[in-house]
Amino acid sequence: MNLKLSNLPGAFGDAETKPDMESGVSEIDANLLDEFAGHPYSVNDDEAMDDLVESIQRIGIATPLLVRPADGRYQIISGHRRAHAARIIGLDRVPAVVRDMDDDTAVITMVDSNKSRPNIPLSEQAKAMLMRHDAIMHQGSRSETGETSRQQLSRENEMGEKTVARLVQLGQLEERLMPHLDDGSLPARSGLQVVMTKPGTQRNVAGWLEGGGKRKLGEAQAKTIRSLDEQQAEELDPGTIAAACAVERKPKTKEYVRVPREWIPAGMDDDDAIEWIHRAINEYSK
User: Fold this and answer.
1) Does the predicted model carry a pTM greater than 0.90?
2) pLDDT digits (tens, 9 = 90+) for 16-41
3) How far is Cα 105 from Cα 73, in angstroms, rounded to an integer?
């Protein structure tokens, strides 16, 4: 299962979309800017940031930030990287569109404004999807068109409903496990098992992964940990997790069949396509 989806159209994304300019642009004090609470996207001092700093030094901030007023200050909705670059340069004031919005609308706008970012880590995609999902749920389980939250997110991000559900689940992992999603030591399938365990168990899984060497939690090991966790009221201790991870995994023998992509209905991601193929084979075998 490949959940690294930032290469898909509409998947969570680096460049932020331009805010609606109808509300007008103000010059606001850069010292009054605060990050969005729980902002899922990283802001890194990397080559891309160097390029942004150079661009702002040369032509200024071309796209105003989008902010909302909050207790005499301003919370950034869109423009965290531009704000960081402005601080590096030492700008006193930055252009911004100031707009009042409730928490759910702010979350939805913040996530949607990042749809064009490339190469977003899986952990950030998951956390953003969870925030977007929860905001939609707060506004009502179904949209005006009758769609469920999962259907709406599936349509907006051009991915299968099952992929949406998996990202929402992965977004609920303990924070210490998130880097392991991104470096591959906690594959997505394993993460979907671990997220069903108690928070303390998840923290101890993180401790095992951080224990040195090139450790990787396989799906079979993760299923064992989940099963053991469900059998007791307390979290699994580090020793039990280490024992579960020490079980030798037997290689699986697989048979592969090539199916031309044009045979598969358009719009399906890999997981949905596999399920469709299985259903077709089962129908043919009847």
Assistant:
1) no
2) 444 444 458 999 999 999 999 888 88
3) 19
The CA radius of gyration of the chain, in Å to the nearest whole number, is 22
Any bridge partners for residue 33, and if so which? 74
- The pLDDT tens digits for 54-72 are 999 999 999 999 999 998 9
User: Backbone dihedral region of 103: left (phi > 0), alpha (psi from -120 to 50 degrees) or beta?
Assistant: alpha
**143, two tokens:** 């949209």
* All domains in the chain, ordered by first residue: 1-7+118-171 (no CATH), 21-112 (3.90.1530.10), 173-249 (no CATH)
